[in-house]
Amino acid sequence: MSLIESRLKEAIESERYADVSDLLKQYSACVAEMYESGHGGTAEEQKVKALMSWAHDALTAGRAHAVGQFQRLSEPRPYTSSNPDRKTWQIML
């Protein structure tokens, strides 16, 4: 299970969200198997909770960053001609 945990952390940190989805499915299956087999004690439960809390925080921060970038790119920018004879345009910030 620690291999899947490290791969999950790495995928989240590198923003490979398609991999995150697949790894979360695998991790969920491992956690379910751990509890079904009776090996899910308090320490293991805390480890799972800590990883899920960290993943939630990292993904929320990544999403907020992406929303900010999208809003910045979506803002209308006024264009004005820098020189009418050259037929070029310049962004006025």
Structural overview:
The mean pLDDT is 83. A hairpin with a 4-residue loop joins strand 1 and strand 2. The chain is built from 3 helices and 2 strands. The chain is elongated, with a radius of gyration of 23 Å. It is 70% helix and 10% strand. The protein starts with a helix and ends with a strand. Helix 1 runs antiparallel to helix 2 and helix 1 packs parallel to helix 3. By secondary structure, the protein is mainly alpha-helical. It has one domain. The protein has a two-stranded antiparallel sheet.
Summarize the structure.
The protein is 70% helix and 10% strand.
List keywords for this structure.
93 residues, mainly alpha, 2 strands
Distance between the termini: 51 Å
Helix content: 55-70%
Compute the average pLDDT. 83
The H/E string reads HHHEE
Q: SS-based structural class?
A: mainly alpha
